[in-house]
Amino acid sequence: MLFVVDRPRLLRRIAIVREDRSPLRQGVNAGFLRLAAKDGELTVSGEKASATFPATVYEPGVLFLRPTLFRRLVRTYAGEKFFTFQMTKDGLLFGDVRIPFEGSDMVYYPNPDDAPDQWPPPPPAAENIPERVEPTLFPMGDKE
């Protein structure tokens, strides 16, 4: 995944879709932010809202990460007009910062078509599993 995006536009979109506004929802309690780069567009999605805008996409992909750390990192580059994001086997490269996969709560899908809409994905629907009948010492039915 490799894309270049307009910094002010990215920050505005993250402010709209993020779900970590209260201190209780920040950090590890925040829902994952979904960044999907595909076909010249970047889609930023939260739990309830998403925003799509133009970006220069060199390699498509989908990245799930916690928004609190990501927003703090993006704000440190106040003088930059554009950001370049690149996913490598080691983690996320963002400017001169490398965020490794270990201990960073990131999930990466190189093929956007394989990525779920949210992370963690919803559990599968329950199957029709018959109820387990507990064995009893004496039959409880009216069978005589």
* CATH domain class: Alpha Beta
Give the CATH superfamily: DNA Polymerase III, subunit A, domain 2
Mean pLDDT: 82
> Gyration radius, to the nearest Å?
22 Å
Defining traits:
2 helices, 144 residues, alpha+beta, DNA Polymerase III, Chain A, domain 2, 5-stranded antiparallel β-sheet, 14% helix, 10 strands
Outline the structure in words:
This protein is of the alpha+beta class and 144 residues long. The chain has a single domain, classed as DNA Polymerase III, Chain A, domain 2, CATH 3.10.150. The protein is built from two helices and ten strands; from the N terminus they run βαβββββαββββ. The chain has a five-stranded antiparallel β-sheet. The protein has a five-stranded antiparallel β-sheet with strand order 4-3-2-6-10. A hairpin with a 3-residue loop joins β7 and β8. The termini are far apart. The model has no long low-confidence stretch (mean pLDDT 82).
Compact description:
The chain is of the alpha+beta class. The chain is 14% helix and 33% strand.
Produce the secondary structure layout.
Elements lengths: L1 E5 H11 L15 E6 L2 E5 L4 E5 L1 E4 L1 E5 L1 H9 L6 E6 L3 E4 L2 E4 L5 E4 L35
Antiparallel strand pairs: 1-5, 1-7, 2-3, 2-6, 3-4, 6-10, 7-8, 8-9
